[in-house]
Write a structure and sequence with these properties.
Elements (H helix, E strand, L loop, with lengths): L1 E7 L7 E10 L16 E5 H7 L3 E2 L13 E5 L1 H10 L7 E5 L8 E2 L1 H4 L2 H6 L2 H14 L5
Parallel strand pairs: 4-7
Antiparallel strand pairs: 1-2, 2-3, 5-6
């Protein structure tokens, strides 16, 4: 099921664009048709992610009273900072991904592998590069 939502872009609030979202079922509608139209079983997702997910089960809860913290932790490899400052080569920046989840529930797919999260973050090395350079500039002692 597709849903069209008007959103403002980051450039200027009066420049509208359209986001195309789909509605996904947390509990499979094929396995449990009685939950196929339950509001608490539906959540908005981008079409690309929904197509990648397919019928795979992922450990994700949208509606919960518990603290909804991520089971993924990103980090900048320690050697990256120094190597990049010397070389200024973005390829020396190594962004790592660590899963904080000990084991997956039976029948569930690994979220990070399914959606190739580490590869997505690799595409944004320019942001890490900028943060490293700003940290270097703004932490210099003032004489």
């Amino acid at each position: 099921m597709g849903v069209s939502l008007k959103v403002a872009t980051g450039f200027h609030p009066s420049w509208p664009s359209q986001g195309k979202f789909q509605v996904d079922h947390y509990i499979s509608k094929n396995s449990y048709p009685c939950f196929s139209i339950s509001l608490f079983n539906l959540y908005p997702v981008c079409g690309s992610c929904n197509n990648v997910k397919g019928t795979n089960k992922i450990d994700f809860l949208l509606y919960t009273s518990k603290s909804n913290t991520s089971s993924l932790q990103f980090y900048l490899a320690k050697e990256s900072h120094g190597r990049f400052l010397i070389s200024r080569d973005p390829n020396d920046i190594i962004i790592g991904l660590k899963s904080l989840q000990k084991t997956l529930p039976p029948g569930f797919s690994d979220f990070a592998k399914l959606f190739e999260i580490e590869g997505i973050y690799e595409q944004y090395k320019d942001v890490a590069e900028e943060l490293i350079l700003k940290a270097e500039i703004y932490t210099q002692p003032i004489n």
